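Methods, example record. To illustrate the input and output format used throughout this study, we show the complete record for Cytidylate kinase. The sequence lines were provided to the predictor; the line carrying structure tokens was produced by it.
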Amino acid sequence: MNSKVPVLAIDGPSGSGKGTVGQILAQRLGWHFLDSGALYRALGVAAIRERVSLDDKPTLARLATSMDIHFVPRTDGGAAAVLLHGEEIGDPLRTEESGRLASIVAAIPEVRQALLQKQHSLRQPPGLVADGRDMGSTVFPDAILKVYLTASPEVRAQRRYKQLIEKGFDVNLPRLLDEIRERDARDAGRVVSPLKPAEDACILDTSQLDISGVVERVHGLLQERQRPG
Ligand code: C5P
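The corresponding predicted structure is encoded as:
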């Protein structure tokens, strides 16, 4: 692992704004961006395509090890294209169903271990903004700054609702809120890398902030950390 390359770790639950904030900051800084949730989502999608049962932990771990996944950044700064065995996954990666599948496979320790090396390999100069649940606590414990974004489940459901409607998905707000609560409970309750802030993370409640407010706060914190002395 290239431990000299700075990492900005942004963790938090679904809908906390970490993906959007992370992408904007990565573009502003000229750093790479890791959407670690996409790895777990891609594995969920791959398992369904290959008809692997979500109870079959050894096969899921093997699938995670052999999964050929690449991120292709977009020039407009939008979410990178995710290629699974050379083919773009596209919309199926972003549905609530793929989020649910991701949180099931993500609870398997061998799967997390298998995806660790892939995440470390994306730490490349001049820097990496890494978004997920355990970027600061487990994957990049030496991150220069660890931020944990959070917001109430209602605010997060509303944000996800807007995002999914804009992408043309058919969604139901009360059901989305139930799914978010269910996913939070599964992510927070698992044995390995449960969803919780790293001990040295800066916790930011984004319920009352818009995206640009969060971007400026996190950028300001990063600049403080980078200041010599
Ligand atoms: O961030 P996103 O909603 O795409 O993540 C989907 C799921 O993947 C999460 O609910 C979580 O279970 C899992 N995940 C994880 N660790 C990460 C990123 C995502 O367990 N670092």
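Annotations derived from this record:
The mean pLDDT is 93.
The pocket of cytidine-5'-monophosphate is lined by residues 14, 36-37, 40-41, 99, 102-103, 106, 132-134, 183, 187 (CB under 6 Å).
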